[in-house]
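Team,

Forwarding the record for the chain on the shared tracking sheet. I've put the sequence and predicted structure together so nobody has to dig through attachments.
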Amino acid sequence: MLHEIVLLLLAAPLLIVAGYLLLLTLMSGKPEVRQAAIPQLRFTVIVPAHNEAAGIACTVQSLLAMDYPAELCQVWVVADNCTDDTAGLARAAGAHVLQRHSETERGKGYALQWGYEAVLRDGWADAVVVVDADSIASANLLRAFASRIGAGALAAQSFYGVRNPLAAWRTRLMTIALAIFHRLRGRGREALGVSAVLHGNGMCFSIETLRRVPHRAFSIVEDLEYSIALGRAGVRVWYVDEAEVLGEMVTGEQAARSQRWRWEGGRRQMLNQHGWPLLRDAVKDGNSVLFDLAMEVLIPPLAYLGLAVVLLALAGVGLLLTGLLHPWAVAVAITPLLMLLLHVVRGVALSGLGWQGWLAIARAPLYLAWKLALLSRHRAGGAEWVRTSRENPRKPP
């Protein structure tokens, strides 16, 4: 009896987490594509860039080539603390360039705040879109955002995927991860009417939103931080499935390690600052948007969650074989694992990798071992903008 009580206590939080992910999975059917609005809104696309001379021209040209009237769209590159020719190359490609230098306020969050404030002062745009300097956008991005704003959205997030999915096993795993975190969960959240979490790339905000909720997010995960600020202000982020931005992902271990250190540290900071207060306020106010944001912050990374549910299932089976557990208790121990498996299988199906996706999943234990080793050596990082190295310089289309 004692073994069963302990097992149930261990299983309870995993059942809640896995059950919520299963709900998002079941709600992740392809949404109906909204009819594109007649172009009327004026967009300023902000590209925050730190030493991106190798590829900034390609990004700017992809944005200028979008299917939207040229007179209703402008591209602004925020060349933030650059020591290369990012500004000159962006200007030559057709972008309006803002150059920013600061010895103390360094990081993407500060660059975005500076860009937003410049747009507000300019007074021309109806909405602002953010696209990273290593990304290309689908031609329908602005039309899709215009349709959401026309329907009442104050903020929106497009699908953010991988530009180089077949470059290495890491990028294939990242493709699956983003299919889970961005497409699967984005679809599920949109179907449930809660807020799609901002991903820092492919974001859209109405000017009204930037005035109502000024951008004060400066952590290394400024997108999640601003998502929380919007949620607390009652602004729901709409998910846009039919448009996308594709970013270049690293393939090398050293670059991936640096990137992961910063991301893990940033999410831990959000957990410590916002996790339980969000959940408390969500329950107190009956606020589904805040509850979903709380789950986003509290749910551990998929690799760690996977390890936990596997260990719980193994413990349940082991205790059953030794006669210390009833079969019904084993079923409880295995259920979180089955729920999470459905979540991952759905993500692989949405990744578009086909059989290569299933081969990539076979590498997951190796990736988990790498992450655990990384966690054991983790050191907290600041919000300063550390440019991720690009292995392959990009050429304009």
